[in-house]
Amino acid sequence: MLFSRRQNHLPTPEEALKGRPEPGFTVPDRHTVLGNPLNGPYPQGLAVADFGLGCFWGAERVFWQAPGVWTTLVGYQGGHTENPTYEEVCSGLTAHTEAVRVVFDPAVTSYGALLKLFWESHDPTQHFRQGNDVGTQYRSAVYTHSPEQQSEAESSRAAYQSVLTGSGYGEIATEILPAGPFYPAEPYHQQYLDKNPAGYCGIGGTGVSCPIGVAPADG
């Protein structure tokens, strides 16, 4: 019963594990596919977007393959525990979700294009799960870095809800919040599916196209 509750309940700051002031590892210097640094500060003119769409192994690959993406890294976001470990996040006692940080060139791609890829690459109507991956760490999330990103993410959610409803899906469960601390995951998680091409990937969309840039949301 306790395990089941942890899969369906976000702990409060008082309930969450306390964590630690510093991580117990060093993030690798460069992206194994793109060749660029993983951690900032990033070159001037680039922008940052953060997404949670299930297991971050497959989610990261979705974005590093996209045009205009300069680097990606996976980590933990949206919770209370400082510098959590993977095991702590999977316990359900940190309130973090598995997230992908996407650093992109706005001269080549757009935040809207990344949002379209985000919506179409998972099922945002699932709550605290993606497919067979069950737990609060797999919840759908967008963490924004400006009022403009917040507004665009909310508008895209409304647009996608319209077409999902028309296709028989329920309400989108995605949380859209201003970005808080992003804690990079352990080195073996970074670009996991590049290092392990036959590794597990639980990412899968609804098959419903997101109408960003095609038609506005109703209402």
From TrEMBL:
The keyword Oxidoreductase applies. It catalyses: [thioredoxin]-disulfide + L-methionine + H2O = L-methionine (S)-S-oxide + [thioredoxin]-dithiol; L-methionyl-[protein] + [thioredoxin]-disulfide + H2O = L-methionyl-(S)-S-oxide-[protein] + [thioredoxin]-dithiol. Residues 1-24 are annotated as: Disordered. InterPro entries: Met_Sox_Rdtase_MsrA_dom (IPR002569), Met_Sox_Rdtase_MsrA_sf (IPR036509), MsrA_MetSO_reductase (IPR050162). Its EC number is 1.8.4.11. Transmembrane segments: none annotated. The active site is at C55. One of its GO terms (cellular component) is cytoplasm. Pfam families: PMSR. GO terms for biological process: cellular response to oxidative stress. Signal peptide: none annotated. One of its GO terms (molecular function) is L-methionine:thioredoxin-disulfide S-oxidoreductase activity. Gene3D superfamilies: Peptide methionine sulphoxide reductase MsrA. Residues 50-201 form the Peptide methionine sulphoxide reductase MsrA domain. Keywords: Oxidoreductase. It comes from the Bacteria. Has an important function as a repair enzyme for proteins that have been inactivated by oxidation. Catalyzes the reversible oxidation-reduction of methionine sulfoxide in proteins to methionine. Belongs to the MsrA Met sulfoxide reductase family. This is Peptide methionine sulfoxide reductase MsrA. It comes from Streptomyces botrytidirepellens. The gene is msrA.
